[in-house]
Write a structure and sequence with these properties.
Number of helices: 17
CATH superfamily of the domain at 8-240: ANL, N-terminal domain
Number of strands: 25
CATH class of the domain at 8-240: Alpha Beta
Radius of gyration: 23 Å
Strand content: 15-25%
Largest sheet: 9 strands, mixed
Shape: globular
Oligomer: single chain
CATH topology of the domain at 8-240: Rossmann fold
Low-confidence stretches: 525-537
Mean pLDDT: 91
Distance between the termini: 39 Å
Helix content: 25-40%
């Protein structure tokens, strides 16, 4: 008899096979797999006692912490859907997501109490607000916090044979190209098979020790929440990226691998504190979220002393689609190896990638012909939450259309060269140019605006606003930047503003952003940086 494919099985297996092995290191706390599994089942029991039913959405607003990792299993054990929230979003953005998803319960850290106070009226669907840490001091919060609930609950385990592997398990909201984010629906089957495929691609080991440098609200920390658990590896949590703390944890816990966005990798290789720590346990660093240059890959390998390669994926694909590690049978050396390991890469097991023309015909695999990346595989989403039309467009023809323009060479390596949609990837975060433009156009003196990406030494690329003012009016760069900060998350705001007399347009009146970008990108190593997560926040 076939057992349904569900990530619940990962923790159950680890509990049975590795009960006394350290599963999670979080600050000064350590949990074995037996403790990890017990806490997850107690969370499930607490949710059911609160009236959470099958399919209800349970949201978490938390930095990386053992409690958020427990939610990846406990929420699903309760039959509910996990909704991790980006802690960098504004009150309005969080209110929209909670309302759109119809979240029933919200767990949040004490540091976000003021934020929750500002959006809770809009998110009227949320019936219970529960603190993850600290004690409630406001009457709209549940009197018991997360630890109280677990201590008083009866552990619950779902009947595996009653689970529908095609049921929704996780819901992640993109910060994609539209003004409003879309909810990406990942099923139990998606999550289970993606974890297996990703672990094969990265040669994940049961003896592995992974530092969670990527926030778990980014498509489950790029799959590590599941793949490492299944094999009984050790999760090491870091709440906020800080080079010295990263080095300290690597040395103390003998960390073997971690995933970074380029800005993180750049900070590590340039940190004056790096030489103070023993980093010899590191065997692999994977870079994603934005472009990685051959120079950065080389510096990581030379200065930190471990294998470094890039990857590509999207929230809609759970997320990993490809990695750029050198294939078996290929012997590239020196600068050529660094160049290839900085590319978008080749498909991981369980994934098929094509590069197609506008009629969905394969372009030549010559490393020159440009087309759109389309993919299908075990991790491709079920669709967008309550958006059947957007789902049909994205999944037309049985392939997920990424909107990313790329080439493919004879060895199957893909290289993104441009994007259909004007997403800006700054420090691993996706920024919608349309959303930023809409905010700037709300200023009474702005006639028209185009927001484009420009190279940034720290963030890879950053938004720049090119503004045309209304005749007879004035505005300063500082004024417009402050105007944006009052309406958008800080990371979405332009880093600079330039005032122009006119914007170049096509005959139909569309702004020629490609022409505007040329001034800033000509002579760079690539036309535009690549991104790893189209919808990740």
């Amino acid at each position: 008899m076939n057992i349904p494919l569900t990530p619940i099985r990962f923790l159950r297996y680890a509990r049975q096979q590795f009960p006394h092995k350290t599963a999670i290191v979080c600050g000064d706390q350590r949990f074995t797999y037996a403790q990890f599994a017990d806490r997850a089942s107690r969370l499930a029991g607490a949710l059911r006692a609160m009236g959470v039913q099958a399919g209800d959405r349970v949201a978490f607003l938390s930095a990386n912490c053992h409690r958020l990792l427990e939610a990846y299993y406990g929420v699903l054990e309760a039959g509910a859907v996990l909704l991790p929230l980006n802690i960098r979003l504004t009150s309005q953005e969080l209110g929209y997501i909670l309302t759109d998803a119809g979240a029933k319960v919200l767990f949040l850290e004490e540091q976000f109490l003021a934020l929750a106070e500002s959006f809770r009226a809009e998110a009227a669907c949320v019936e219970s607000f529960i603190l993850l840490d600290g004690q409630s001091s406001v009457n709209w919060m549940q009197p018991m916090n997360y630890e109280d609930l677990l201590a008083s609950s009866t552990p619950h385990q779902a009947d595996l044979m009653q689970i529908d592997e095609n049921a929704l398990g996780e819901l992640f909201y993109t910060s994609g190209t539209s003004a409003q984010p879309k909810g990406v629906m990942l099923t139990h089957r998606n999550i289970y098979l993606h974890a297996l495929n990703a672990s094969l691609a990265h040669n994940t080991s049961g003896d592995g020790v992974e530092l969670h440098t990527i926030p778990l609200f980014h498509a489950n920390g790029w799959g590590v929440a599941h793949s490492l658990t299944f094999l009984g590896g050790m999760h090491v949590m870091i709440r906020k990226f800080d080079p010295v703390e990263v080095f300290r944890l690597i040395e103390r816990e003998r960390v073997q691998s971690c995933s970074l966005v380029p800005t993180m990798a750049t900070a590590l290789v340039n940190s004056p504190d790096r030489h103070r720590f023993n980093l010899s346990s590191l065997t692999r660093i994977s870079i994603g979220g934005a472009a990685s240059s051959p120079t950065l890959v080389r510096e990581v390998e030379e200065k930190i002393g471990c294998l470094c390669y890039s990857g590509y994926g999207l929230t809609e694909t759970a997320p990993v689609l490809s990695i750029s590690r050198m294939k078996s049978g290929i012997q590239w050396e020196g600068s050529q190896r660094y160049e290839v390991q900085a590319r978008t890469g080749y498909a991981i097991p369980g994934v098929e990638i094509r590069v197609v023309d506008p009629e969905d015909r394969d372009v030549p695999s010559d490393g020159k012909a440009i087309g759109e990346i389309v993919a299908r595989g075990d991790g491709v989403m079920e669709g967008y939450w309550n958006q059947p039309e957007a789902t049909a467009i994205a999944l037309r023809g049985g392939w997920f259309h990424t909107g990313d323009m790329a080439t493919m060479d004879e060895n199957g390596y893909v290289l993104i060269v441009d994007r259909k949609k004007d997403i800006i990837v700054s420090g691993g975060e996706n920024v919608s140019s349309l959303e930023v433009e809409k905010a700037i156009l709300a200023h009474p003196n702005v006639y028209e605006v185009a927001v484009i990406p420009v190279p940034d030494p720290r963030w890879g690329e950053a938004p720049k606003a090119l503004v045309v003012l209304k005749p007879g009016t004035q505005a300063t760069e500082a004024e417009l930047l402050e105007f944006c900060r009052g309406r958008l998350s800080h990371y979405k705001c332009p880093r600079s503003v330039e005032f122009l007399e006119t914007l170049p347009k096509t005959g139909t009146g569309k702004v020629l952003k490609k022409e505007l970008r040329k001034k800033y990108w000509d002579g760079q190593e690539s036309i535009r940086p690549e991104m790893v997560e189209k919808g990740s926040t």
